[in-house]
Amino acid sequence: MNKFLAFAKEQTGLLFFLIPVAAFVEISVATLLQLITDAASGKAHMSYGWLLLLVGSYVIVDAVFYFWSSYAKVKWQNTISASVRLSLLRTYLTSSKLAGDETESQHD
Fold it and tell me: pTM for the complete prediction?
């Protein structure tokens, strides 16, 4: 597993930061819903304008983190698969058996 992660070290580090932050943003919707409920019932003294601004900001932040984490995951997977593919091709193409040395000796 470490060999595969070595192909995308920088992106792996970014994902280790990004995934927990994106999870925190997704989980914070419960707090936002509680605030909406409290404002509607009169427990929280917040105007609907501020509440609308807060909900709109949350939607934007959530969308940005969702897009960013989805993009980073796909880019990470593609980087690793492309690097593994390139490594395998280099290994196989530089191998003497696959380069044609064995077939030439059989024809002599």
Answer: 0.65
How many Cβ atoms are within 10 Å of 7's Cβ, its own excluded? 17
Under a CB-based contact definition with an 8 Å cutoff, are residues 25 and 61 in contact?
yes
3-class SS letters over 21-81: HHHHHHHCHHHHHHHHHHHHHCCCCCCHHHHHHHHHHHHHHHHHHHHHHHHHHHHHHHHHH
Q: Over the stretch 31-65, which tens digit does the pLDDT of each residue have?
A: 999 999 998 898 988 888 999 999 999 999 999 98
- Alpha-carbon distance of 66 to 73, in angstroms, equals 11
Cβ atoms 4, 88 nearer than 8 A: no
